[in-house]
Each structure stands twice: as structure tokens, then as C-alpha cells.
Amino acid sequence: MRKALLFVAIAAASLLGCGNKDASGSGSAAAGSGAPAMSGAPGASGAAATGPGCAGIGCGNKKGDFFEPCDCKGKAMTPPLVAKWTGKVDSFYKRASFSVENTSDKDIHWGSVAVYYYDKSGKQVEVELKDRKEKFKAARSNGSNFTFKPKEKKELSLGWDEKSYPKDVAKIEVVFDGWCYGTYDDKASHLCVNVDRAPDDRPPAN
Questions:
Q1: Going by DSSP bridges, is the β-strand pair 191-194/70-71 parallel, antiparallel, or unpaired?
Q2: What is the spatial distance between Cα 89 and Cα 14, in angstroms, rounded to a whole number?
Q3: CA-to-CA distance for 76 and 84, rounded, in angstroms?
Q4: 184-187: long-range contacts at Cβ-Cβ below 8 A with a sequence spacing of 24 or more?
Q5: Using one digit for the tens of pLDDT, what is the confidence trace for 121-138?
Q6: 44 has which bridge partners?
Q7: Is it the case that residue 193 has pLDDT exceeding 60?
Q8: How does 77-88 read in b/e, with b if 16+ C-beta sit within 10 Å?
């Protein structure tokens, strides 16, 4: 159902050339909450660079740029981005609106998310499309719309548009499976991280 991704390795050249973007597509996810311990040691949450490339965060020897992201699977690494549904729908895109916070002390300019929907009982609900069912909505965001300064919080719209919502949605949650530290225009500052993929079936966090 989902396309395999290397740090959600979408057509990278076209993605990096875009400005505001909340692209849909198959994707993966990992837990998305908690403040990061900036030690960069394996298993630390929201790892930030303490040395060259991925080796500085204990995630192999790749470059850590968008094309060779750090493979941090199995490191129990908590993403530095935290998203909470506001209960509202964005007036322009007609998607769920989330308060998204960068809890780290580093700039972030790219993120990959999965958006899950639940009914009042906490049961995960699927979206029925014309030719298939989807258990979550994948999204990749970059450019000026998805640029966070350290500790910055902003409101973003993510997921299916309102007309595609499953019936009886009472809760929507976002989990992050990848992100890039650094500023968008300064490629030398980039450190991109890919963490464990979330399963298709995921209970609500709370």
C-alpha cells in the first residue's frame, strides 16, 4: 500500500526545488512527541549533530544530506517535531490544522509525516478512496511553509481534505518519520534523519 522510502525518498530533485509544499503520497512514520536531549548519542531523542555527518549522531557513515540521510532505525530516537491537532480545519486547504513545534535548538526545514484518524472509541479509521483504502495519510513538507527556527511553533494543515475524512472522526494525530536539520538555503548545514517506520495499524497516543 505504501511505497518504500529512503527518508521518504521522493523525487528529491523536484521536491527540493519547490517552495511551500504539503505533498501527499505513501510514506512512513515514527513517534512524534517529546523534547530532545541534544547529546546526539544513539537513542537520544531529537538527535542533533555533534560531529561530521551521520557518525556524529551514531547513525552510520552516510553524508546525512537529503540524498544520503542518516539511517537511525532502531535508535529509539524521538523526533524534534511535535504536532497537536487544534480541532480546526484550515480555511484554504480544508485540511486538519495542527500546532507544530520544533522542540530542538536547531533549525529544521523538511519533514515527513503520517496522519492518523480515530473515532470516539479510539479505533483507527480508514479513508475509502475510489480504488483502495488508506490507513493513514502520508505528507512531505519543505520550503518556506515548513521552516522552523529553534523552539518555534506554527500552525500547519496536514492530512486528507475535509471531504475525504472518514466518518465519525474524533481525533487526528501526526507522527514524524523524517526531518532535516539546517536552513533550507544552506545545504552545508543540512543533517537529514530517517527513523523507524510506523505500522499501518497504530493506536492513538493518548
A1: parallel
A2: 28
A3: 21
A4: 184/109, 184/110, 184/142, 184/143, 184/144, 184/147, 187/65
A5: 999 999 888 888 888 888
A6: none
A7: yes
A8: bbbbbbbebeee
201: which 3 cell numbers? Answer: 495499524
Question: What's the whole-model pTM score?
Answer: 0.71
Q: Which three cell numbers stand for residue 110?
A: 523538511
Longest dimension (CA), the chain: 48
**DSSP states of the chain as a string?**
-PPP-SSS---HHHHHT-SSEEEE---------SPPPTT--TT-TT---SSSGGGGGTS-SS--SSSS-EE-TTS-PPPSEEEEEEEEE-TTT-EEEEEEEE-SSS-EEEEEEEEEEE-TTS-B-PEE-SS-EESSEEEEEESGGG-B-TT-EEEEEEEEEGGGPPTT--EEEEEEEEEEES-TT-GGG-EEEE-PPPPSS-----
Model pLDDT for residues 48-70, shown as the tens digit of each residue? 444 468 998 899 899 999 889 99
